[in-house]
Amino acid sequence: MATYKKLGERIRRIRKERKLTQEQLAELAKVDAKSIIEIENGKRNPTFRTLNKITHALKVPLKELLE
User: Fold this and answer.
1) Domain limits at 28?
2) What is residue 1's three-state secondary structure?
3) What total number of domains does the chain contain?
4) pLDDT digits over 19-46, tens only?
5) d(CA 44, CA 59)
6) pTM of the entire structure?
7) Which letter, b or e, does each residue of 11-38 get, where b requires 16 or more Cβ atoms within 10 Å of its Cβ?
8) 33: domain CATH number?
9) Phi and psi dihedrals of 7, rounded to 5?
10) What 3 state SS string does 17-66 have?
């Protein structure tokens, strides 16, 4: 579970750097806002497809989220 939490923290940090709300990120990534909230809080293990959508929306390589 700690890995999910770290991933969520990275997504939240980058999202805030981009000055996006969770709802805006969800819209850009074409995923449910509840999913973004749960991923950022480490309560959901995102699929590769969802991670790919988020990285495209944030304009970061997947590697940056997984390091």
Assistant:
1) 2-66
2) coil
3) 1
4) 999 999 999 999 999 999 999 999 999 9
5) 22
6) 0.91
7) bbebbeeeebebeebbebbebeeebbbb
8) 1.10.260.40
9) -60, -45
10) HCCCCHHHHHHHHCCCHHHHHHHHCCCCCCCHHHHHHHHHHHCCCHHHHH
